[in-house]
Amino acid sequence: MSSKENAAVSQLLSLLESRYAMRVLWALRDGHAQTFRLLQDSVGGITPNTLNTRIKELREAGLVNHGTDGYGVTASGVDLLKRLNDLQAFAGKWAASQAKKK
Fold this sequence. Notes:
The protein is mainly alpha-helical. Helix content is 69%, strand content 8%.
């Protein structure tokens, strides 16, 4: 992997590691736009200030947009969520194998 690719992966992981960033994306994964209030309820436990910050960061990253119906994922966001589904499947298998070791 080139240094540019490493930097891109690092930058993306840094964004996704931000508190609630993954939960915001996950709440929007069904493709239906959500208003701010609905998104806040979907994420659960997030303050309006933190949600505003995460939305701003995710919009700047091109993963989330705002339309007339509310917030939704962009084409890049959909692509990322598809790839994260693969990670989720791997994580389930990995966790099961770790549990067998104990």
